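User: Hi! I'm working on a homework problem where we have to compare a predicted structure to a textbook description. Could you give me the structure for the chain below?
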Amino acid sequence: MDLRNIAIIAHVDHGKTTLVDAMLNQSGTFRANEAVSERAMDSNDLERERGITILAKATSVEWHGRRINIVDTPGHADFGGEVERILSMVDGVVLLVDAAEGPMPQTKFVTAKALALGLRPIVVLNKVDKPDAEPDRALDEVFDLFAALDASEEQLDFPHLYASGRSGWADAEENGPQKDLDALFNLVVNHVPAPRQLADINSDFRMLATTLSADPFVGRVLTGRVESGKLKVGSTVQALSRMGQKIEQFRCTRIQAFRGLGQQDIDEATAGDIVSLAGMSKSTVSDTICALAVDKPLEAQPIDPPTISVTFGINDSPLAGRDGKKVQSRVIRERLMKEAEGNVAIKIEDTPGGEAFVVSGRGELQMGVLIENMRREGFELSISRPQVLTREIDGVRNEPIEEVTIDVDDSYSGAVIEKITGARRGEMVEMKAAGAGKTRIVAHVPSRGLIGYHGEFLTDTRGTGVLNRVFHAWEPWRGSIPGRRAGVLISMEAGKSVPFALFNLEDRGRMFIGAQEDVYGGMVIGEHSRENDLEVNPLKGKKLTNVRASGTDEAVRLTTPIRQSLEQAIAYIDDDELVEVTPNAIRLRKRYLDPHERKRHARAGG
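Assistant: Happy to help. Predicted structure tokens:
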């Protein structure tokens, strides 16, 4: 069957997964009476809850006798490790751009990777039926973006369509019939080249493994595109590392191809198709699966290095072991090593004591998703504040700089500019009117300066601002950046919090806990209204007397406590604090639970 392999790339929330839904429906993948959930490609619970694509996934549709393999890629730069591997499996990309917002930072990140591989893009201006859509402006911005990314003449001569993924139509003209996606399917078939590997169908079998998964029945499963030759079930093949070393020799026990949203067993894999293989015990991502006669591995795409690190440790608080079942350092290490095996953008290092592990990755969101998955699996962890990784370049200390794109109401732009270009050491690159009373600000800010800034940003813009960030470059160290200004309220007692005590503590600051919650000595229960830390007693009850006055025993009314999400908690803590993560709770605590140890640590300068 005539093949086409494409990837769909877009910024977060530009409608990529919704468009794939429409393509699956209109290609006849589903039966007329089949119940299909919205955003069918988002199979992970976290993806559905957050509305973002985290894992790259493949699907397949048939269109007029041709098979189109579609890869849905993550839109966030923190999951760029997925993108870099996936793009090596396809021969063309569909770039989806919101007609109102235009190309955004994550669009730029993934598009740069695609253009560098020589892929010719198809641009789809999505959501043109929105009231504030400006497709012509968005198209001009896409062209400017391609030019800035050094696209070739062939890549700059890209075809474009106007579309509405939610309504299920795409047309070559803005005022077209708006009926279906035929124009998109036809453009993919005519513009994207067939896999060049088809010419090598009679040569030795070779496939580059791009994603790793586990099956309870057959064990490890590696997915990738067949670069050359054929492979039948039962054949013996070998795995070569990126350096050409032989890892193992194994018998292929199963071959599966993507058919719609599922996978189907096939007897033979041929050059150009995207398939999953089983039977190996050691092979992993970036390895070459090939015939025994092959001695040279396929070239794998280099992965951008990590920019931040977080320390994962055992939960050693007084409440440890109440919620989760997986609390030992050995079990935590096994889980982290399993994650690093399938996600090449993550690096794991042991600490000298062996009870904590330094996990390096792309950003706070990637770390947050990993921790959230682990807590749902029953793990209990203590998490440190993220630390930015530095590198020496020509004897100069360099740090990661991120390009930040901010859309805010005009009235809040001054406060935002003051914050990012002041203490956070950012440099403003561009500022322009974005229409509808909004301003777009583009700045280059150190990654250190963005840790913990998002919550402050939402407060400054009354929740109306949108901030997007993407790695820009390594640049010389920009000097010290002040941390959190406010101190914290620390519990000095263990037990259940008392409403009367919390009511009297509200003058001291904002509370993180409510009444009748478990607390212990050293646990952070609120934010102090001043810069210093303060130890308080949240268990102090009302003293009883035998004299009762009218109104003195009325129930106290507590202000609703601040409940931080996992990412907010990790960004909020200071260097001498930890986040305690269990399946049922997220708590903040001091690194040293003993009060005398805390004082010694503070005197020593932290």
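For your comparison, note the following. The domain at 391-476 is CATH 3.30.70.240 (Alpha-Beta Plaits). The radius of gyration is 27 Å. Good luck with the assignment!
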